[in-house]
């Protein structure tokens, strides 16, 4: 969460300087700066995700050196999940802060013919971003571990697509539909990379024990 906050601070600072140094009356320029700010923020978030991976890698090496059996008490897959969830929760928290700020008024949503589903769709988008950051963390860390740079590139590309789709708003179908399709796709991919399979998923839904789970007393 801290690493995501630092990336947000730096990207906000760059965007703020760019806006102040430009003509506020030039609408095409301001829109271009907004697009630039979103793209720069995404790239900076992924850069900090990579820096966080490198930091965790050093931490694991230190834990292995201190352990008696030469094994780390926590796996890189667990760290990837927690790191992605931290990114997602902090991203969702800031999204909710912006929504609550808009909810204070003045005015009523939809009073000028705009969509009345602003808050509802924003909530669904925030939920999608939380899940996506979690799955992106798993995919990104796996790409770093296996040196499959194309997996890291896919994470960056899908992050850019989801963030860029928000420019379709207030046509919310243009942002929610592709975001949720990518969310389900990355969820399945992250599940497979984490060692999951269809049989274990069906067993868990039925409340049965997985084949790879330790039996009682073992």
Automatic annotation (TrEMBL):
Protein name per the record: Gamma-secretase subunit APH-1
Species name: Chelydra serpentina
Subunit text: Component of the gamma-secretase complex.
Function summary: Potential subunit of the gamma-secretase complex, an endoprotease complex that catalyzes the intramembrane cleavage of integral proteins such as Notch receptors.
Any one of the GO CC terms: gamma-secretase complex
Entry's family note: Belongs to the APH-1 family.
Topology versus the membrane: Multi-pass membrane protein
Record field: transmembrane: 31-52, 79-97, 117-142, 149-168, 180-202
Pfam families, sorted: Aph-1
């Amino acid at each position: 969460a801290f690493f995501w906050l630092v990336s947000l601070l730096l990207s906000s600072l760059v965007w703020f300087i760019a806006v102040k140094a430009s003509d506020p009356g030039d609408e095409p320029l301001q829109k271009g700066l907004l697009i630039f700010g979103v793209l720069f923020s995404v790239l900076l978030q992924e850069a900090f995700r990579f820096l966080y991976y490198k930091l965790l890698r050093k931490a694991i090496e230190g834990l292995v050196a201190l352990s008696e059996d030469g094994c780390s008490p926590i796996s890189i897959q667990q760290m990837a999940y927690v790191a992605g969830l931290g990114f997602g929760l902090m991203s969702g928290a800031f999204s909710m802060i912006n929504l609550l700020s808009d909810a204070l008024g003045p005015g009523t949503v939809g009073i000028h013919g705009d969509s009345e589903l602003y808050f509802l769709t924003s909530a669904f988008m925030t939920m999608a971003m939380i899940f996506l950051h979690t799955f992106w963390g798993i995919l990104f860390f796996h790409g770093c571990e296996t040196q499959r740079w194309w997996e890291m590139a896919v994470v960056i590309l899908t992050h850019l697509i989801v963030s860029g789709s928000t420019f379709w708003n207030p046509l919310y179908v243009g942002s929610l539909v592709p975001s949720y399709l990518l969310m389900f796709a990355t969820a399945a991919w992250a599940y497979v990379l984490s060692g999951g399979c269809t049989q274990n998923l069906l067993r868990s839904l039925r409340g049965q024990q997985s084949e790879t789970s330790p039996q009682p007393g073992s």
